[in-house]
Each structure stands twice: as structure tokens, then as C-alpha cells.
Amino acid sequence: MTILEQTLAAIRPADPEAVAEARAHQDRLTKPRGALGALEEVAVRLAGAAAASPPPIPAPAALAIFAADHGVHAQGVSPWPQEVTQQMVGNFLAGGAVANAFAAQVGATVTVVDVGVAADLPPAPNLIVDKVAYGTADLSEGPAMTPAQAVSALEAGIAVARRLVDQGARCLVTGDMGIANTTASAALICAFTGRDAAEATGRGTGVDDETLTRKVEVVRRALLANGLAGPAGGRSRDAGDGRAPDGDVVAGPVSPGGPPAGDVLTGSALRTLAAVGGLEHAAIAGFILGAASLRVPVILDGVIAGSAALAAAALAPDAVDHCVAGHRSAEPGHALALAHLGLRPLVELELRLGEGTGGLLAHPLVCAAVRVMHEVATFDSAGVTEKGA
Ligand SMILES: Cc1cc2ncn([C@H]3O[C@H](COP(=O)(O)O)[C@@H](O)[C@H]3O)c2cc1C
Ligand SMILES: O=C(O)c1cccnc1
């Protein structure tokens, strides 16, 4: 078995006994039932993921920023030059980016992973070079990657997850850097959810109206060029409850049910990821799968992570049980991806940066939610009278 196949085979869904025990425990704690709102669900989710109640405190956290370039940049979908990707990698390694400041704030380590930057980068202590290619091909003209490249990038992400957990991380946070990657994200979201390009495409780093119109057309062409436009003309297949209807569609939107693990190399999930994803999207999908296979929670950042999580979920639906949505970014496609995955974001601050910034901000909330399970007294132990019937 390949590393990817081993990883997919190792992923388990939330443990129902741990979930039930965590829910019951929440209700015994000295607070009114449900008083911690969404944080109670986070604690229950982590219990299910860890198959233990209470679950381990998800700290320390480790951020991995996956960096890569995009052939679709040539279509004028971002106001920023492509070399900003490599320049920002230098900034992360020097400690000067927003992600570094937020990581310091929450005590997370920062590792940068070059899976596809268009230039060779000088070695640095926190840089892993696992370059699959010097950027992707232009997804608006045909597949961005070959399936073999997508697998290599997935396996690069799995390797990073394993390494960070080996080094002591008990929570992983996704990060990305890749100029033009919100275009690939929008295309992935359309392909996996069946949404229309106009619904899923946003302004990214802040494009003007004219560029946004072009970007929507580029996403539309990408879906057509790769046979992913779908018989429904791109209408939503979302049942409105965050779950897609049954069945996998070869030339159309891909359900998160996806192909069985045995078909991974020929399955539509991998082909879709290779067709319109970026190398960092594939690596982030692998990072999510790696975390899930180790039962270590992974906090998702913004729209790039959300679109990568759709690919991870199409490859292994149970991987979603190990994910927490750190935040909801301003990109419209992000909300669509989260709804499709059935994930509720913890923070909403109109961030539109990426790098892992929104995921990092959520880490203290996730820790607080779990700490409650370890430290808060029960009505019995504290001698507090429960409310009457
Ligand atoms: C200085 C700078 C720092 C960033 N950090 C993250 N991104 C974010 O913006 C890029 C995606 O937006 P688009 O698709 O519009 O190019 C990604 O690199 C993402 O990580 C940045 C972008 C810039 C310019
Ligand atoms: O959603 C994000 O994380 C995002 C949005 C705009 C640009 N870069 C990233």
C-alpha cells in the first residue's frame, strides 16, 4: 500500500461512545445545560475524534504553511505578482508575517513547506522543501496537475502531519501561501459542491470589479476545460443541510462520499483535485488526512483550507470528524465549503488573509472548550444543587 492508501485506511469516524460520554459529562458540569454553546460541541467533537472523554488538551499547536505557485496567475486573476509567494515564504521564515505574530500569541510553532514554489528557496531551519513541481499548469486550459503530482503533494502533507505530531504537536493548524490560490479554491468548491462560479468566487487579495468578472469567467472555463461543469449546469446539489445527495458523478460535482479508498488513484476525487487544485491545496488535504489518521485534531483556516478539506472529505469522508473550522473568511466560497462539510466556524472577523491566521486565532477557544471537560466541577463533586424539573 502507498502512504496515501495507508493513511486513508487508518482514518476512523468519531467514536460514538466517546461522543455520548462527552455529552453526558457536559450536562453534569456546574453550568446550565448548553451554556457554553458551540464550545460544548467542539469538546464533544474532539472527544469523538480522539475516542476518549475527556479528550486530550489540544496543545501545543503547530502551524504548517504550504506554499506553491499557480499557472492560472497568467490569466490576471490576482493583482499581485507571482514572486510574492516566495517573498512571503522568506517573511514567514524571518518571523515577519501576520501568521508569525498570531502563532507567537497562541504558542504555536511555524513550519513552512515548499510543495510548489516557482523558485528554488535557500535552506532555512523551519523550511521543509518537498517540491512536487515549480507551480501548477493553468487550470483554465486543462488539468493543473497530473494525478501523480496530486498524490505526491498529498503525501507531502501527510509526511508533515506525521513529523509535527512526532515532534510533540497535539493540534495541527493549516496554512497556505500561493498568489492566485483563491481562484483554484473557488474552482475546487464549485467542482465538489456543484455551486456556480459566480457564487463561489470572491475578491481574494482585493481585486476590482473588472478583475472579479474575469476571475469568475476563468473559474467557469476551468470547470468546462476539465469536464467538471456538471449536468446540473453548476446548480447546487447541497440539500441545504450541508450534505450532498448520494452518488458520485464522474463529469460533475463530486460528492463528499467519494470513491472507496481502493479506487483512490483513479477516483474522481483525486482527478478533480488534480484538475483544478493547487499543489498547496493537495498538500493541505494530505495534512488533514494525516492528522485524522493519527486522531490529532486539525484546525482549518480560510477558503484555501476549506476547499482542500472538500478534497480530503471526498477521499475519506470520516476525516471531517477530526476537523474544526477555525473561522469563516470573507471569501464567499468559504461559507459554501463549510456548509457542505457540515462545519461551524468558531470565529468570524472578516479576515481575508490565509497563512493560517484564522485557524491560529481559534486555537485558544478549542483549548478552552477541552479544558472545561478536565477542570470544571460536576454538580455532585461541588455540592451545587441542580435545577428542579
Ligand atoms: C502580501 C501578501 C501576503 C499574504 N498572505 C496570505 N495571502 C493570501 O493571498 C493569496 C491569495 O489571494 P489571490 O488569489 O487574490 O492572489 C494567497 O497567497 C493567500 O495565502 C497573501 C497575499 C499577499 C499579497
Ligand atoms: O479565506 C482566506 O483565507 C483568504 C482570503 C483571501 C485571500 N487569501 C486567503
From TrEMBL:
Its EC number is 2.4.2.21. It holds the Pfam family DBI_PRT. It is an enzyme of class 2 (transferase). The keyword rRNA processing does not apply. It comes from the Bacteria. One of its GO terms (molecular function) is nicotinate-nucleotide-dimethylbenzimidazole phosphoribosyltransferase activity. The active site is at residue 355. Residues 229-261 are annotated as: Disordered. Coiled coil: none annotated. It catalyses: 5,6-dimethylbenzimidazole + nicotinate beta-D-ribonucleotide = alpha-ribazole 5'-phosphate + nicotinate + H(+). The keyword Transmembrane helix does not apply. PANTHER family: NICOTINATE-NUCLEOTIDE--DIMETHYLBENZIMIDAZOLE PHOSPHORIBOSYLTRANSFERASE (PTHR43463). Catalyzes the synthesis of alpha-ribazole-5'-phosphate from nicotinate mononucleotide (NAMN) and 5,6-dimethylbenzimidazole (DMB). This is Nicotinate-nucleotide--dimethylbenzimidazole phosphoribosyltransferase. It comes from Planomonospora sphaerica. The gene is cobT.
